[in-house]
From TrEMBL:
Its cofactor is pyridoxal 5'-phosphate; [4Fe-4S] cluster. Residues 86-306 form the Radical SAM core domain. This is KamA family radical SAM protein. Belongs to the radical SAM superfamily. KamA family. It comes from the Bacteria. It comes from Thermodesulfatator atlanticus. Keywords: 4Fe-4S, Iron, Iron-sulfur, Metal-binding, Pyridoxal phosphate, S-adenosyl-L-methionine. Gene3D superfamilies: Aldolase class I (3.20.20.70). It holds the Pfam family Radical_SAM.
Length: 379
């Protein structure tokens, strides 16, 4: 195929890593994968290169203390059949792919790649379509994994065409980091663009949710790939986790927002890094992250500040909306139990908190008898 590239899954191509025994221990536990294209964007002479932080293994991933889980958002609880999650009434997520163009070091689904990976990929496409057909409340389908654009174009066409036959599904979202890791997958595959043209219609759009973490990922090739998707009729939005050493600087995050908006890519979500095993070196505490996020938004115009700072928790998608001197305020952007959607949770601040559970544990362990430390709910 014209869009094939070289995938690198061994550090022997990177002498500074190949000679490091600790790095080899990391790779044995958490695999490494990268495209030749992306590797060429990295300044290997700079130990603090932000693109290196995104994809190259680091010794800190072997930190000794216990931190995180393989399934930090408890996706298993919402899995109704292999590869199909139904957490929110109107939305299902299909783990359509078990492949990525590169493996992000902070991946929250690394359970799919460690120890041979977990058998979670969707295999029964027709069964999934029957499930969606039988639930008329479902209006949105997310194709994820893995990376949806790493699927062969022919299978992606079959998948999307079958979903388009479901009358109540108005939106199909394709989650992907291909434009950042592997833009030639899009640049050199006219069949993919024709697929987008066919199934992204004025009344039922395809959304491509891209994943750019740092302004340097927005190369001319990456921007052209996104432009072609938009010209084909897709709506393109970006989401990124807040990652230590990558975009935890307000100036860098603001520049990412600017470059995205200049290219017509809407900043969508900035996610709190999920507490997955091995992710501790990449995570930023929630309250520090909120201040970085809000400072960055204050540096850009309205069109560039559309992103929300959110946490994909087991209980739902929580937006971090405010800090006072003593409290932090969350809002259920979407709750797994829909009656909680829109409700506000208020906790006493904890600068060491990386996840909602850190506030809950503080409540239950130390301040159970004090009302001010209990979460307060408002509709």
């Amino acid at each position: 195929m014209a869009h094939r590239t070289t995938f690198i899954s061994s550090t022997r191509h990177i002498p500074s890593l190949a000679e490091n025994e600790r790095i080899q221990e990391v790779v044995a536990k958490y695999p490494f994968k990268c495209t030749e294209y992306y590797l060429n964007l990295i300044d290997l002479t700079d130990p603090n290169d932000p693109l290196a932080r995104i994809v190259l293994p680091h010794e800190d991933e072997l930190q000794e203390w216990e931190w995180g889980r393989l399934d930090p958002s408890n996706e298993k609880a919402y899995t109704v059949m292999p590869g199909l999650q139904h957490k929110y009434d109107s939305t299902v997520l299909l783990l359509a792919s078990s492949n990525c163009a590169g493996l992000c070091r902070y991946c929250f689904r690394k359970r799919l790649f460690v120890d041979g990976g977990q058998p979670e990929r969707l295999e029964d496409l027709d069964g999934a379509v029957r499930y969606i057909m039988g639930h008329p409340e479902i209006t949105n389908v997310i194709l994820s994994g893995g990376d949806s654009l790493m699927l062969p174009t022919g299978y992606l066409r079959e998948l999307i065409s079958k979903l388009r036959r479901v009358p109540h599904v108005g939106i199909i979202r394709l989650g992907t980091k291909v434009p950042a890791y592997y833009p030639h997958r899009i640049l050199n595959d006219p069949d993919l663009l024709n697929l987008i043209k066919t199934y992204s219609t004025p009344t039922r759009r395809l959304y491509v949710i891209v994943h750019f973490d740092h302004p340097r990922e927005l190369t001319p090739e990456a921007i052209k790939a996104c432009s072609l998707l938009m010209e084909a009729g897709a709506l393109v939005l970006n989401q990124t986790p807040l990652i230590r050493g990558v975009n935890d600087d307000p100036q860098v995050l603001a520049e990412l927002f600017r470059k995205l908006s200049f290219a017509g890519i809407a900043p969508y979500y900035v996610f709190q890094c999920r507490p997955t095993v091995g992710n501790r070196p990449y995570a930023v505490p929630i309250e520090e992250g909120y201040q970085i996020f809000e400072t960055a938004r204050g540096l850009v115009s309205g069109l560039a500040k559309r992103a929300r700072f959110t946490m994909s928790h087991e209980k739902g998608k929580l937006e971090i909306v405010a800090l006072t001197e003593e409290q932090i305020i969350f809002k259920f952007h979407r709750a797994a139990d829909n009656k909680n959607t829109g409700k506000i949770l208020i906790y006493r601040r904890n600068p060491d908190a990386y996840w909602l559970d850190d506030y809950v544990e503080m409540v239950s362990s130390h301040y159970l008898e004090s009302e001010i430390f209990r979460p307060t709910y408002f509709v």
